[in-house]
Amino acid sequence: MSSSFASSPVILVHGLWMGGWAMSWLAHELRQAGFEPDSLSYESVRGTLEEHVARVRQCIEQLSAQHGRAPIHLIGHSMGGVVVLRALAEEALARQAGRVVLLGTPARGSQAARAFEAQPWGSALLGHSRELWRSPFPCVIAPSLEVAAIAGDEPFGLGPLFVSLPSPSDGVVTVEETRIDGLRDHRVLHVSHTGMLVSREVAQFSATFIRTGRFPG
Predict the structure, then answer these.
(1) Which of 4-18, 64-78, 107-121 has the highest mean pLDDT?
(2) pLDDT computed for residue 3 by the predictor
(3) pTM of the entire structure?
(4) Which one of 88, 90, 119, 162 is most buried, counting C-beta atoms within 10 A?
């Protein structure tokens, strides 16, 4: 895989309760770095996991048609990263994918989501995303995929309101939940779960991994 990825397409996939707008700042930073970001929106609460995967598949296929044989890179935040991993479990999509960056993604399951569902109003607010948190999570990333993860250790978020999260965490996802076998790189930065979406350091790390296959430093 070439080390030059300027002008390459990058799909940005948001997390729970958000929309494509949540990735706007990151999209701006990637555009400044020479990439072509495309913020995908999906119904994170009302839609099913199958529908989320179908949206990622559609976006990959559309960009592949536009860019020919160029690899389609992906960056997923939180639940969006889980959706990306599920989509790339499909061999045909994995072949079209370039490099992947997971931002605060509970790749091994989410204690906070399970605790949230246990609240009287939790099921209503989680909606169909309950299916994702209840289903088995991948144990390992396929060797053919180049995936890296960024975790945060600034515990500012809703998680501690519902469950005592082991430290370190970003306030919603623990660092340990972001680790999954098969990652090409993993880094813990001093950011919160939502704060990583407006972190210049996170944007720089993401761009560097897409270009080189490794985080800086």
Answers:
(1) 64-78
(2) 40
(3) 0.92
(4) 88
What's 154's DSSP letter? -
Residue 167: both structure tokens together? 């430290």
Of 73, 72, 23, residue with least CA distance to 44: 23
Q: In degrees rounded to 5, what are phi and psi of residue 173?
A: -125, 135
d(CA 92, CA 76) in angstroms, rounded, equals 19
**Residue 173 contacts by C-beta under 8 Å, 6 or more apart in sequence?**
78, 104, 105, 106, 110, 112, 151, 152, 159, 193
| Distance in angstroms (rounded) separating the CA atoms of residues 116 and 55 | 26
Q: How far is CA 3 from CA 42, 100, 209, 210, in A?
A: 31, 14, 10, 8
Quote the Cα angle for 83-21-207, to 5°: 65
Q: Kindly report, residue by residue over 39-92, the tens digit of the pLDDT.
A: 999 998 888 989 999 999 999 999 988 888 789 999 999 999 999 999 999 888
- Token pair, residue 49, equals 């996991």
pLDDT category at 2 given cuts 50, 70, 90 is: very low
Instruction: List the one residue out of 194, 189, 135, 187 whose CA is nearest residue 159.
Output: 194
